């Protein structure tokens, strides 16, 4: 189900207001977990379409962060259950799965997958912001605020990435992956280099004149 629809369906459900605070929190946690899993799957779907290593790594790291969000929410949900918790069966963790869909073999298909991932993350932000008003647990409210901020940060980076690769030549490799031109600033992120738009923002904050907003050229 679409993440935005999940968020709207629960938060507009009149029965949520009639539920006890504990049951309301349980419903919100269950939906939040499903939403985080949807975002993770969308990120993996886009990232695995690329041959360029840093872009793949970027999506994999963001997906891993979102997967950790879901695990923390799951632990919080388990802690709400009454009585002793059953022993967790031993075994390997699930292999992260990408969202289902047709193979991403053309730039338009890639842009569509990007759009779906963006909408999924935007739905997560909406849900976490609005659900903060529905839970009494101060720790959980703070954690949901952190989740919304994390998704906002991801979208900022990924939005600049999409702008930087849009309309650039790509070709399909024999392994059926898209090979776009290199994006040096993505690789530099992993070395701690501040992205171009952040440097401009810092210059404006310090009272200096920024050399111009490079991102505006792509809008």
Structural description of this entry:
- By secondary structure, this protein is mainly α.
- The protein has a single domain (3-82, 100-218), classed as Ferritin.
- The chain is built from 8 helices and 2 strands, in the order ααααααββαα.
- The protein has helices spanning 3-11, 14-18, 21-47, 53-79, 107-131, 138-165, 184-189, 196-205, and strands at residues 170-172, 178-180.
- The chain has a two-stranded antiparallel sheet.
- A hairpin with a 5-residue loop joins strand 1 (170-172) and strand 2 (178-180).
- Helix 1 packs antiparallel against helix 3 (21-47), helix 1 (3-11) packs parallel to helix 5 (107-131) and helix 4 packs antiparallel against helix 6 (138-165).
- The longest helix is centred in the last third of the chain and has 28 residues, at 138-165.
- It is elongated and about 55 Å long.
List the helices and strands and how they pair.
Layout: H1 3-11, H2 14-18, H3 21-47, H4 53-79, H5 107-131, H6 138-165, E1 170-172, E2 178-180, H7 184-189, H8 196-205
Antiparallel strand pairs: 1-2
Features:
63% helix, Ferritin, mainly alpha, two-stranded antiparallel sheet, 3% strand, 219 residues
What's the order of the H and E elements?
A: HHHHHHEEHH
- The fraction of residues assigned to DSSP E strands is under 5%
Helix vs. strand class: mainly alpha
End-to-end separation in angstroms reads 29 Å
Q: How many beta-strand segments?
A: 2
Main sheet: strand order: 1-2
Helical fraction: 55-70%
Question: C-alpha Rg, in Å?
Answer: 20 Å
- CATH topology name, in short, is Ferritin
Provide the CATH superfamily. Ferritin, core subunit, four-helix bundle
Q: Kindly state the mean pLDDT as a whole number?
A: 79
Shape label: elongated
